[in-house]
Specification:
Number of domains: 2
Oligomer: single chain
Strand order of the largest sheet: 1-4
Structural class: mainly alpha
Largest sheet: 2 strands, antiparallel
Helix content: 55-70%
Number of helices: 20
Radius of gyration: 25 Å
Length: about 400
Amino acid sequence: MNALLDWLSHGLVNASVTQLVVFTLVMTHITIVGVTVYLHRHSAHRAVDLHPVLQHFFRFWLWLTTGMITKEWTAIHRKHHATCETPDDPHSPQIQGIRKIFWQGAEVYREAAVPETLKRFGAGTPDDWLERHIYTPYNFIGVSLMLVIDLVLFGAIGLTIWAVQMLWIPVLAAGVINGIGHFWGYRNFECPDAARNISPWGILIGGEELHNNHHTYPNSAKLSQKPWEFDIGWLWIRLFQSVGLAKPRSTGPVVEKVPGKTTLDIDTAWAVLNDRFRIMATYAENVVTPLVEQELARAGNVTRGMVRGARRLLCREESLVDAEQRDRRTALLEENPALQEVYDFRQRLQAVWAKRGGNAEELVRELRQWCADAEASGIQALKDFVRELKSYSVPRLARG
């Protein structure tokens, strides 16, 4: 009896509180790495190739610690990108509400795992003997085995450790990323959905905190885009790469700026088209913002409140602008001809991107006309922007 009570109190290892906390954090972090590197960047987006040994390690680990099935997770996530912020999106807080996605994110995932979705979006996922006979039909056995391991090692407190492991992904990944990541935070880029970066330091959730960056460049293995942003998932990929276990396939648009280049040629056209989200962010920062600040400085007390916040109104992705914001923008532009002009130029440039299915000659012609009109506007910020735009080119290696 004493031996039983002693085991219930301490388990086999008799760990201290600090050791229990460290163990739990290490275990949950490995799980997060499995989700972001294996499920997300490798399986769903093919942004990184992983060695078969590493792939199977993560499959086994996620079976043990979450019970998640690779095909289900991959298919639902791909559908999310294909139908983002629409009624068909499996988990959009903009459609279903932040409360539902945050608190019932895991349940929403299970509801979305219907055969039609798996068939349409689940191509290229594991279909070997282990997947068909162990991991998929008996996914509950893995988490049950994890419970036994925790209880044996740590005694009764192992139940708490196991509960934390089981809640880690439903709360942080399904709830925080799918919920808050489309509801609150900052945006580096105006991608055509509501995705936001929750934090510039992607550590706790493996880099997935940089959600706006990911939705802008979904095929990039690296989620950080600004110098001050940190993506720990990318750090793990680089470590795996250093020992031959990973190979990134993409880290975003491949472009270069050629000092002194003053002609807009076909290489420029393809480069700016490829890097259009970053270019539009540059337009917002270097053209719209300085003009807004000038207008704010000269605005009277009556119009100051109208001008304040103009940058966001003028540069926001149009599908995310509601009726009230559209009315405010209209009123603002009617009172500020200079802002109206830079806004019109922005819309024209967006229209060029929208025609990217046209031929190369048409793309070059429209960009040249846009640049000529911008230079003729007399607005110095626009002239400087055109000068930078003309310096874009396709790197020689990318030309094949």
